[in-house]
Specification:
Elements: H1 2-22, H2 26-30, E1 38-43, H3 50-53, E2 61-66, H4 76-88, E3 93-99, H5 103-108, H6 118-130, H7 132-136, H8 141-161, H9 164-171, E4 177-183, E5 190-197
Parallel strand pairs: 1-2, 1-3, 3-4
Antiparallel strand pairs: 4-5
């Protein structure tokens, strides 16, 4: 265990050396500030690295990750990240990226208790209830799982658009688009779910806020 920890420190040194060899001002430039055009809301799964998936460099992607890439309206962590990204960094795109094979989504489809995370998974179970007729019509279990991963990502796009943070940005004329993706662990490719929202007019009227 100690050896693994020491290797991490050694890897950091090598990374710094390699980065400086390519650009002597690499870290000095990064320290000047950040102006990322993109907020990435993804899953905490270690196999889904935001920057690498889109070929971005440090400073180009503002990142928030949690179990199953959820946007929960009472989650102050997510809301704080969202507020800073939209109102301070003035990002122009938000991508919610789920991934096939997501353990959180899989657990939400079952009945086994997995501890305190049950309370988090309840939000995903609510989504299943809203789409149960369609999902239960899919006989193949793997196909049903994949379909629910896609539905979950789409629902989070709409959850973002329902927030006062995003709607206020639109009211003020800020260019901001929210997109839904799913990443394939076994291919490396992302699938654009073709759910992009750039105005609260695309929401049901009950969610449109007068700000």
């Amino acid at each position: 265990m100690r050896k693994f920890y020491e290797q991490l420190l050694e890897n950091n040194k090598k990374w710094v050396e390699t980065s400086l060899a390519k650009d002597p001002n690499y870290f000095a430039d990064l320290a000047k500030g950040q102006q990322p055009p993109l907020l990435w809301i993804g899953c905490s799964d270690s196999r889904v690295p935001a920057n690498e998936i889109v070929g971005a460099k440090p400073g180009e992607v503002f990142v928030h990750r949690n179990i199953a890439n959820m946007v929960v309206h009472s989650d102050m962590n997510m809301l704080s990240v969202l507020d800073y990204a939209v109102n301070v960094l003035k990002i122009k795109h938000i991508i919610v990226c789920g991934h096939y094979g997501c353990g959180g989504v899989k657990a939400a489809m079952g009945h086994q208790s997995v501890g305190i995370i049950d309370n988090w998974l309840r939000h995903i179970k609510d989504e299943y209830r809203l789409h149960d007729k369609y999902l239960n019509s899919i006989e193949n279990e793997e196909e049903r799982f994949n379909a629910f991963v896609e539905i979950n990502a789409k629902e989070q796009v709409y959850n973002l658009a329902k927030t006062s943070i995003v709607q206020n940005a639109w009211k003020n004329g800020q260019d901001l688009m929210v997109h839904g993706w799913v990443y394939g662990l076994n291919s490396g490719f992302v699938t654009d779910l073709n759910v992009t929202i750039s105005s609260n007019e695309e929401l049901d009227s009950v969610y449109q806020l007068d700000l």
